[in-house]
């Protein structure tokens, strides 16, 4: 009976010991949710805040020069989302991707924590007191030794009071007025507009036009005030039969070009010749020869422009032809009688007034090189990165004895400076702007500063007080008081205006300093077979977006490539040279060479290659550094003497194959639809017949006689009600019974997407990331366990592990023969199918259909079999391959302080969990709770999803399709409506797409 | 002999294991050093894998009975947003100090009440003097994937005591209810009070 008689195995006592220990451990940590959490109370409760209830502060977006109005959603002291201000005259509630990503600049993990000073070769932290003493000392020194007159201050362009304060401050210290720089500004067009209309940027009435012709002007991306232009353009296209036809002429089919009904590909720089020929100032034949466009095409365009009244003609001055082209276009609009109808100088975008051209910055750089600048100050601009490498800005900066940066980020320019006085982010700052005449857009902080930064305006006031002669001028205790003192109407007017973020009146504005002669006026040509087009990236802009991971994980709207640089090569040319997408090409200009993977593209002229600008940072934080290559390295530093605008497309390059291959980081599976009926379009003349055809198709195959729920069909719910001969009794239907006391099944949440409006800009994608805590997966540091792709940006995406709940699919139609083609954009998100293929395959009921029509994913039920994703025909389910949401993992997507942005209403998903679009269920439940506590039903159109809210085309509509009072219920019955894959797969989606409407050339035969 | 022993041992071990697991689940909270087992209330049946009954020691032994019963303060005086927010609201230090600036640690004898010295009020005033927040230990907790909102419950007439127990009698607050899903659903389907029944679809709480 002794234990030793047991022949083999663990001794009994040992086993019991282990068992005992195990249960003790289980008891201690077990399945218990017991964890020690601390509740830290406020010392003093902030006024007017309720915990877990958002406050919205109206402010102004500073991500580009346009100054859209924003509402900063702030909860418990943290601003976590930026939304458009519906009352703002520019953006009317819409918000572009770059504006949405502002919060990632605010919480950026690579921001300076406080002031920095140069010690030897490094910038080291210092205190504000020491930093300001140093600055004051240097300013006094410059004043006494007479060097102040040579000082240079380059500021990011903004309208409003700050430039006025800055000029006054500079004058007080004997320094010349500042340069107000915007690397994206189209200086040629601004100059031409000033000459023709007296304003820098007249607003454009797309809706009033019968025909829009753009000569390379990308008004949906970075050209001018893109959000208001997109709103107007989408509204114009939504007129359907009365909508303008749009022709895009340019060497590369940009996103704007992809929205055109016709693309005329020409050689870069030939736009002016084309315009002159079309106006009768030259022969069509010569123009055809020079531009590479068939004469017949030009002839037809000439006729079209002559007959369409009114029309809207616009041109980009960045295309190489410069100011002459912009002036010619303005003349042409005048002679066609378009001014006052489609071009409205009486309603200018005033925020674009007063931009110093690129040539001024280049001239200042030359003065630095000559040793004439004793003091340089930069704020919000990065000339070392945005100027081409051949301009050798870094070398010129080395000649400046003392350089001050007010940048909050370790960008290329700031890293060369001697003193860094980090500015508040716009979300932490006071300010104002003048977006349109008589409207003041106010800017206020949404929260306390994240780091030990100081608003530059406050720094100026403080330093100004130390200047004995000018102290009285800067007596205001801080910039907020300074603004209020100067606000038209004073405090009495300021306070109510601040609530709305908008006031009336005109702010004093600075007088623009005289333009300097740009250093290099001669266009450089280079000797290669290909013209190079460098264009600002739609998401990264002038490169300032590159440190915001939402903008990095933002597929280029046209090529769908991201986390990378690429060179676009024409399809026929590629075939001729044997180039495939991903083949690394050496692109060489006289200024430099880059090795870039090729992207074979139909939308580029045969003799042209194109590279996007914005990648290739050598510093600027973990998301920007060493991602892609800088296209500026290829460009000569060349400026148009008439306007000082930088020539973006001015050089020739050679391309050679290197023999290596780099896979393109892309979310695109196929660029063709193969008759799958995903993105449908009709020609405008088919609109009339569409209604009757739709009536006939009302009886869908396979669903002959079923009683469905009101609104969209939902066989799952119908089955639960016994309509499909199920044996359930009413009692067993539970909440799926429309008469159930919960009333859940009375609703059917649904969405319509109007493809006639959608421009493919992808603002919805970023809005979704912001709302739903979607992790980014492509950052270099996240690729740690990815074999062969260690540290490669986008490595996870190369393995198909991207995480974008809503994505823009872009399909090409036609063009296989090298002719014109059509681009179609489809926002693809979870279709919340009434008969969802993902639901029955889940072994743990983690995904199921809710009574109110949602396809629900319950994260805490999910065990990660991924069966649902495999069975989803729309490919809209995304799996957490790594612990993107778990702070201790190397793939954590929100490194410290980026996690402050997380939406507290949405679960952060852990490793091994499937996730997908929820139709913003948190917003649905919040609206239901709010309505219930106010004792009323949810009002029609009371709330909407994040994507629909942001959409600058107003293409997305969300709501209850079962209640006719909601807009979506009406739109879902539109004759243009269709479901993706419904007829193939019987999925009964809750997303209704409305067909795109094409406007073929009047003379062209139907369907062309 | 060996066979007989084996047949006795194996089920025995299995049974032991099962008992250990069950015990561990039920008594999980007892192993916490700072926890005392208190009244489990009416919810004992579903207490498995729940820290129900946990009553952590707080940095200041805040006496709810004194404030609620003796002074007659309403729950919403301190937990001010329970009826208008998902979060019940937690009193700021200034709320405490609104009274405790005047009501100090030393109370002289008056109106027939004896003098008393309160070390706890002294602690509070020390925190306040140092402008430090009191690091209260959280008692009630649901996981991140549960979106529990106080507002609709309070507005539906569910009293604080229904879920939090007789806090007005608790000298140290403990977790009265198990706060696990079975307990939630039990009420949502109308088993506790028919008029309290509410939607019990997954997506009502999990998103």
Explain what this protein looks like in three dimensions.
The complex is a heterodimer of chains A (1008) and B (207). Chain A is of the alpha/beta class and 1008 residues long. Chain A has four domains: 116-184 and 355-504, Rossmann fold (3-Layer(aba) Sandwich), CATH 3.40.50.740; 187-300 and 313-321, Dimethylsulfoxide Reductase, domain 2; 530-661, Barwin-like endoglucanases (Beta Barrel), CATH 2.40.40.20; 681-998, Alpha-Beta Plaits, CATH 3.30.70.20. Chain B is an all-alpha fold and 207 residues long. Chain B has one domain (2-205). Chain B is 38% helix and 3% strand. Chain B has nine helices and three strands; from the N terminus they run ααααββαβαααα. Chain B has helices at 2-26, 64-70, 75-78, 93-100, 119-129, 150-155, 160-164, 181-188, 202-205, and strands spanning 106-107, 116-117, 136-137. Chain B has a two-stranded antiparallel ribbon. In chain B, a hairpin with an 8-residue loop joins β1 (106-107) and β2 (116-117). Chain B is extended. Chains A and B meet through α1, β1 and α28 of A and α1, α4, β3, α6 and α9 of B. β1 (38-39) of chain A pairs antiparallel with β3 of chain B, so a sheet runs across the interface.
List the helices and strands and how they pair.
The complex is a heterodimer of chains A (1008) and B (207).
Chain A: H1 12-28, E1 38-39, E2 55-60, E3 69-75, E4 78-84, H2 97-100, H3 102-106, E5 116-119, E6 122-125, H4 128-144, E7 152-156, H5 162-172, E8 179-181, H6 187-197, E9 202-204, E10 211-215, H7 226-237, E11 245-250, H8 255-258, E12 262-265, H9 271-278, H10 284-291, H11 295-307, E13 311-315, H12 322-335, E14 343-348, H13 358-369, E15 375-379, H14 383-386, H15 393-398, E16 402-405, E17 419-420, E18 431-433, E19 439-443, H16 456-465, H17 479-486, H18 490-500, E20 502-504, E21 530-536, H19 549-552, E22 567-570, H20 571-577, E23 583-589, E24 592-601, E25 608-613, E26 651-661, E27 681-683, H21 687-696, H22 715-720, H23 730-733, E28 749-754, H24 763-772, H25 795-798, E29 807-814, E30 821-828, H26 838-841, E31 847-849, E32 855-857, H27 867-871, E33 878-879, E34 914-915, H28 921-933, H29 946-950, E35 956-960, H30 967-971, E36 977-978, H31 982-985, E37 991-994, E38 996-998
Parallel strand pairs in A: 7-8, 7-15, 10-11, 10-13, 11-12, 15-16, 16-17, 21-25, 22-24, 27-38, 28-37
Antiparallel strand pairs in A: 2-3, 3-4, 5-6, 5-17, 9-14, 18-19, 19-20, 21-26, 22-25, 23-24, 23-26, 28-35, 29-30, 31-32, 33-34, 36-37
Helix pairs in contact in A: 5-16, 6-12, 9-10, 9-12
Chain B: H1 2-26, H2 64-70, H3 75-78, H4 93-100, E1 106-107, E2 116-117, H5 119-129, E3 136-137, H6 150-155, H7 160-164, H8 181-188, H9 202-205
Antiparallel strand pairs in B: 1-2
Helix pairs in contact in B: 4-5
């Amino acid at each position: 009976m002794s234990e030793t008689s047991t022949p083999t195995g663990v001794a009994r006592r040992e086993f019991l010991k282990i068992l005992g220990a195990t249960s003790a451990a289980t008891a201690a940590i077990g399945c218990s949710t017991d964890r020690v959490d601390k509740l830290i109370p406020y010392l003093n409760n902030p006024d007017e805040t309720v915990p877990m209830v958002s406050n919205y502060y109206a402010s102004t977006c500073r991500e580009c020069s346009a100054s859209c109005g924003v509402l900063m959603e702030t909860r418990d002291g943290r601003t976590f989302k930026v939304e458009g201000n519906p009352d703002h005259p520019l953006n009317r509630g819409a918000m572009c991707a770059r504006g949405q990503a502002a919060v990632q600049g605010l919480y950026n993990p690579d921001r300076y924590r406080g002031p920095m000073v140069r010690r030897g070769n490094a910038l080291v932290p210092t205190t504000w007191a020491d930093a300001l003493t140093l600055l004051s000392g240097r300013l006094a020194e410059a004043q006494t030794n007479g060097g102040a007159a040579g000082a240079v201050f380059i500021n990011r362009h903004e309208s409003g009071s700050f430039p006025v304060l800055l000029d006054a401050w500079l004058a007080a210290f004997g320094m010349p007025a500042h340069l107000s720089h915007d690397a994206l500004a189209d200086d040629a067009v601004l100059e031409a507009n000033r000459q023709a209309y007296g304003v820098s940027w007249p607003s454009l009435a797309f809706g009033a036009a019968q025909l829009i012709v753009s000569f390379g002007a990308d008004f949906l991306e970075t050209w001018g005030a893109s959000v208001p232009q997109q709103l107007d353009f989408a509204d114009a296209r939504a007129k359907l039969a009365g909508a303008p036809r749009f022709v895009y002429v340019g060497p590369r089919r940009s996103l704007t070009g992809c929205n055109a009904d016709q693309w005329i590909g020409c050689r870069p720089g030939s736009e002016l010749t084309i315009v002159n020929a079309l106006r009768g100032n030259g022969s069509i034949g010569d123009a055809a020869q020079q531009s590479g466009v068939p004469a017949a095409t030009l002839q037809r365009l000439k006729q079209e422009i002559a007959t369409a009244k009114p029309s809207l003609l616009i041109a980009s001055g960045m295309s190489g032809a410069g100011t002459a082209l912009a002036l010619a276009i303005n003349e042409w609009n005048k002679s066609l009688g378009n001014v006052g109808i489609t071009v409205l100088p009486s309603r200018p975008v005033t925020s674009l007034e007063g931009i110093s051209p690129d040539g001024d910055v280049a001239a200042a750089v030359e003065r630095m090189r000559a040793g004439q600048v004793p003091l340089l100050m930069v704020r919000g601009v990065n000339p070392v990165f945005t100027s081409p490498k051949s301009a050798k800005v870094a070398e010129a900066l080395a000649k400046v004895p003392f350089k001050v940066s007010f940048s909050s980020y370790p960008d290329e320019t700031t890293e060369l400076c001697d003193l860094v006085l980090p500015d508040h982010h716009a979300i932490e700052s006071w300010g104002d702007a003048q977006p349109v005449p008589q409207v003041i857009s106010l800017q206020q902080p949404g929260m306390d500063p994240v780091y030990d930064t100081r608003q530059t305006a406050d720094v100026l006031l403080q330093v100004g007080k130390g200047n004995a002669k000018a102290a009285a001028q800067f007596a205001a205790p801080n910039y907020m008081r300074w603004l209020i003192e100067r606000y038209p109407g004073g405090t009495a007017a300021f306070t109510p205006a601040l609530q709305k973020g908008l006031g009336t009146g005109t702010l004093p504005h600075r007088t623009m300093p005289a333009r300097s002669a740009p250093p290099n006026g001669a266009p450089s040509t280079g000797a290669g077979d290909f013209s190079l087009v460098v264009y600002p990236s739609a998401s990264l802009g002038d490169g300032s977006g590159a440190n915001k991971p939402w903008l990095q994980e933002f597929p280029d709207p046209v090529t769908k490539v991201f986390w990378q640089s690429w060179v676009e090569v024409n399809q026929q040319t590629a075939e001729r040279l044997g180039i495939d997408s991903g083949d690394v090409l050496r692109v060489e200009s006289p200024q430099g060479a880059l090795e870039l993977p090729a992207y074979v593209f139909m939308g580029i002229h045969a003799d042209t290659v194109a590279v996007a600008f914005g990648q290739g940072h050598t510093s600027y934080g973990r998301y920007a550094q060493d991602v892609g290559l800088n296209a500026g390295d290829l460009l000569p530093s060349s400026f148009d003497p008439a306007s000082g605008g930088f020539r973006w497309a001015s050089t020739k390059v050679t391309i050679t194959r290197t023999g290596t291959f780099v896979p393109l980081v892309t979310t695109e599976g196929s660029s063709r639809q193969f008759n799958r009926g995903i993105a449908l379009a009709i020609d405008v003349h088919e609109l009339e017949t569409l209604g009757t055809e739709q009536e006939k198709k009302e009886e869908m195959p396979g669903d002959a006689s079923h009683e469905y729920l009101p609104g969209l069909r939902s066989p799952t719910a119908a089955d639960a009600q016994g309509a499909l001969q199920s044996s359930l009794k009413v009692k067993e239907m539970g909440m799926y019974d429309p008469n159930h006391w919960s009333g859940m099944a009375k609703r059917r949440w649904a969405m319509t997407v109007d493809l006639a409006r959608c421009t493919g800009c992808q603002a919805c994608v970023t809005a979704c990331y912001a709302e739903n805590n979607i992790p980014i997966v492509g950052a270099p540091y996240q690729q740690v366990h990815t074999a062969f792709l260690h540290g490669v940006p986008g490595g996870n995406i190369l393995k198909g592990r991207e995480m974008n709940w809503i994505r823009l699919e872009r399909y090409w139609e036609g063009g296989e023969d090298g002719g014109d083609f059509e681009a179609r954009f489809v926002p693809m998100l979870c279709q919340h199918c009434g008969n969802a293929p993902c639901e029955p395959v889940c072994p743990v009921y983690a995904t199921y259909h809710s009574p109110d029509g949602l396809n629900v994913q319950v994260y805490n039920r999910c065990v990660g079999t991924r069966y649902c994703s495999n069975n989803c025909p729309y490919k809209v389910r995304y799996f957490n391959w790594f612990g993107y949401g778990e702070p201790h993992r190397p793939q954590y997507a929100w490194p410290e302080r980026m996690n402050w942005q997380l939406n507290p209403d949405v679960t952060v998903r852990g490793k091994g969990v499937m996730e997908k679009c929820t139709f913003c269920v948190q917003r649905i439940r919040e609206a239901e709770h709010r309505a219930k506590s106010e004792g009323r039903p949810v009002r029609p159109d009371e709330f909407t999803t994040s994507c629909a809210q942001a959409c600058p085309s107003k293409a997305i509509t969300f709501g209850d399709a079962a209640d006719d009072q909601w807009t979506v219920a009406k739109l879902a019955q539109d004759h243009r409506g269709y479901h993706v894959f419904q007829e193939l797969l019987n999925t009964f989606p809750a997303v209704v797409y409305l067909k795109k409407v094409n406007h073929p050339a009047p003379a062209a035969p139907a369907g062309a | 002999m060996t066979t007989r022993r084996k047949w006795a041992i194996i089920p025995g071990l299995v049974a032991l294991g099962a008992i250990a697991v069950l015990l561990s689940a039920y008594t999980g909270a007892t192993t916490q050093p700072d926890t005392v087992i208190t009244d489990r209330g009416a919810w004992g049946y579903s207490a498995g894998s729940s820290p129900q009954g946990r009553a952590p020691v707080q940095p200041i032994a805040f006496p709810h009975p004194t404030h609620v019963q003796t002074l007659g303060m309403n729950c919403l005086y301190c937990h001010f947003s329970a009826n208008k927010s998902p979060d019940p609201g937690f009193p700021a230090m200034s709320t405490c100090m609104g009274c405790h600036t005047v009501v100090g640690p030393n109370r002289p004898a008056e109106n027939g009440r004896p003098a008393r010295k309160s070390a706890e009020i002294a602690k509070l005033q020390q925190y306040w003097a140092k402008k430090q927040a009191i690091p209260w230990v959280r008692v009630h907790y649901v996981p991140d994937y549960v979106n529990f909102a106080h507002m609709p419950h309070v507005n539906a007439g569910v009293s604080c005591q229904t879920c939090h127990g007789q806090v007005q009698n608790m000298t140290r607050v403990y977790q009265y209810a198990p706060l696990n899903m079975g307990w939630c659903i039990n009420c949502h389907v109308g088993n506790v009070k028919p008029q309290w029944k509410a939607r019990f679809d997954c997506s009502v709480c999990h998103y």
